[in-house]
Amino acid sequence: MMAPPLPAASVCGRFTNRPWLPEPAGISKLVLGTSGDMEPMSFTHADGKVVGLDVDIGRFMAQAMGVKLTTRTLPFTELLPALQRGEVDVVISNLTITPKRNMSVAFVGPYMTSGKCILTKQESLARAQQAEDLNTPDTRIAVMKGSTSEDFVRTLLPQATVMLADSRTAAVDLVKSDQAGGMLTDYPICMSSLKNHPEAGFVSLFSLLSYEPIGIALPGNDPLFVNWTENFLMRMESLSALDEIGKRWFGEYAEAMQSE
Hints:
With about 260 residues, the protein is α/β, with parallel strands linked by helices. The chain is about 30% helix and about 25% strand. It folds into two domains: about 10-115 and about 215-255, Periplasmic binding protein-like II (D-Maltodextrin-Binding Protein, domain 2, 3-Layer(aba) Sandwich), CATH 3.40.190; about 115-210, D-Maltodextrin-Binding Protein, domain 2, CATH 3.40.190.10. The protein contains nine helices and eleven strands. It is globular.
C-alpha cells in the first residue's frame, strides 16, 4: 500500500531545529516510539522486525515527509517521557488520549476508537452484566502498569484486586497461569490475544463503559509538527487509507475500530 501523497516541500528544508526534518546536507529520519508488545497495533516478529497498524501509520508519515523511519521500542510507561526528552519524535502505540497525558504532550486524532475488554478463562467473569458483578476482592484483574486500563479498574472496580504487569505478554501470562482471573485491556489487544492463544480457553467480555480515543502523541512545543500531523491524518482519512490499514490488521473487526 502506498502512502497518500502529501507535499513534502511543505515541511522540508525550512526549519533546522527539528530533527525529523531533512537537512540540506543529507537525509534525516523520523524516530517512532512504540511498545512493540501490543499486537496487532505494534508487535515484534521473531526476526526483530516491528510491525502493526501503528507502525504502518508511522511509516506513512515518514514517507510523506520524505525521510527514513526509525522505530524504537520502549516499555509502555517510558514512551511519553522519551517523547518529552526528545529521544523519539512521535509516539504511536495504542495510546489513549486523556486529559492527564495531554497536559504534557500534544495529541492528534483520534485515528481510531476502542473500548475496554476483559480476557478471562472464568465463565463467571465473562457473564458479568455490570461493573458491580466484578467489584469484589476475589476478582483479580491484570492490567498494564500506567495504562488507562489500570485507571479504569481503580476507578470503577475499587474493591477488585489489581495485578500490575509491565507488558501485555506478562498480563496474558497471569491469566493463563490462573494467577489473575482476567486481564482488562483495549478491544484490539483482547481480540489479538484470543486469536494467538486458542489453546488457553480464553473468552472475552466487551465493555461499553469506556470510550477510548486512540491518538498520535507529539512534542508539545512544536506547533508546526502538530499542524502537519493534523493535515496528514485528515489526508489519510479522506483517502480511506486508515480504513485500508484497519482491514489489514483487524479484518472483520475493522469497522468497530474506526475513528469518530
